[in-house]
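Slide 14.
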Amino acid sequence: MSAFLGPVHFMLYNKIQRQNELLNEIINASEENRWVNGLKDKLKEKCGENETAPLETVIDESAIHNWLNNQVSTAESRMAFALKLILEKDNTLIDKISDIFYSNGASARLDYADIIVAEELFNAINMCLLDGMPCDGGITVESNDGSEIVWSINMQVHTPFYELSGISSEIFLTLRDKWLQGFFAGSFNIDYARLSESTFRIMEV
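Slide 15: predicted structure.
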C-alpha cells in the first residue's frame, strides 16, 4: 500500500465500485429487456467511466482528493443519467429499477450477515452507499442512543447531478429507500423506516 493512501481512501473507492456494480445491474436489465438501446455506450459518451482496477495502481497520488472527487462525480453522473434515459423512455420502469435496488440491498446485507446491532448495521450501510466525499457531510446523524439511529441525507451532495441530467432528485431518495428496505428485510430484530423525504431510522426491536 502506498504511504499516501489510507483506509478512508480505500473505503470511498469501494463505495464507488459498489454503486457501479448496482448500475451495471441496471444496464444489464436494460439490455436484456431493451429499455434503452446502447445504454452502456451512451453513459460512456456522456459521463465517462470509473476506474475499476486496484486503487493503488490507478490513483494520482499527487492529487488524491481531486482524483477521488472526480471518480465520485463520474459515478453519480452515470447513475443519474442512466435513470433519466430509462425513465424518459418509460416512466413505469421505475418499478423494475426499484426491484433492482431492493435486491442489491438484500445482497449487500449478506456481507454483514453476522451483524445484528443497529449501530454496527448503520456503519455497514455507510460502507456500501455513496454519499459524496467524506468531507462533504453527506450524512447527518440526527440521534443515536445505540439501539435507535435517525439520520438524514444532505441532498446538496446528490441533487446537482440529477438537476444536470434533467431528473428529479426525489427519484434518488425513492431508490435509496428501496435499497435500504432490501438491506434490512432479513434483519429480524431491526425495524427500518423512512421518516420523511430524506430522513431515515433503524431501531432494534
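Speaker note: Residues 7-33 form the longest helix (27 residues).
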